[in-house]
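User: I'm putting together notes for a lab meeting next week and I want to include a structural view of one of the chains we've been expressing. I don't have a solved structure, so I'd like a prediction I can at least talk through. The sequence is below, exactly as it appears in our construct file.
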Amino acid sequence: MRRSTRDLEDLRARLRTWLAGRLPEGSDPEISVSGPASQTGMSSETLLLDASWREGSRRRTASLVVRLAPDVCDVPVFPNYDLGKQFEALRLVRELTSVPVPKTWWLERDPAPVGSPFFVMSRVEGVVPPDVMPYTFGENWLYDAPDVLRRRLQQESISVLVRLHAVERPSQVFGFLSFDEPGSTDLERHFAHTRSWYAYAAADVGRSRLLERCFDWLEGHWPSTETETVLSWGDARIGNILYDGYRPTAVLDWEMAGLGPRELDVAWMIFSHRVFQEIANAVGFDGMPDFMRPEDVIDTYERESGRQLRDIAFYGTYAALQWGIVFMRTGKRQAYFGEITLPEDPDDLMHHRAALEKMADGRYWD
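Assistant: Thanks for the context. Below is the predicted structure for the 366-residue chain, given as structure tokens.
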């Protein structure tokens, strides 16, 4: 899927000029662009760089990654991209936890140098399960791995959530991630934020009757007891983790980070596999039905964290609804780039439509 209309050579030249202004005079920076990261991700643009500059009598080299807010003309997934919040979240997670995240270098809030805000972080070695084509389709390193290594990756990925959720005083330390929408709890504010996101998506492609049914179902099945607030990664899925030897080397993509119950991340990790499994089944592939099964993920998380998870049907349906909004935006983007014709019914953009239908009726998680 195409994500951007940016010219890479122009971007390289502008980044070199910007870096020369950031470094001491006489640093004489040089930048080469390895290219965009293309196997995963649906939102921010990611650019791989090799940079060098003079420090005293020596030249220093660094392998870097630039995360750019997408151009508004390129149909971004989210209405707003606060790169400052992402940068600070990465910095604090690296400082306060054992969760592996890249070292942060520079944050540029001014869009003038390259056309949008961006930040720079270290490049970490590792491989990621592909989104395009989905890893559940086969012919990739995770699909071809023996069961014991798949289980290791699943265990290690769940452990990332346990460690993130163990951050003390999350509402104080990560208070800048709290959503601004009204609500008396973090979950209520999270939900109101998602409603605003849906309205943004529907303004371009039309209202989704299916997602609105899911909103209604969620409101009618609100958890009677909300568990404690934790740091929520938001986009907690294996497609946002780099692995080496089936163990995480970097946890990436913090656009959806916020505060809320731990079940938000656990359910997102479960359903983020389910959505790719649904897509694989829809085109006749077996997929990976024994991977990231809800009962296995829940059992592993509860044993490692010592915390009981509640209302997974609610949070799983909520995750599926948010995936529906993502597909509304990525569908609109595909139409913008001439890759598809936008359907008359926005529900036809939902790659997991059959699952959503069952969830709207309360039947999926039985």
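A couple of points you could mention at the meeting. The chain has two domains: 8-122, 135-360. The longest strand covers residues 45-55.

User: Perfect, that's what I needed.
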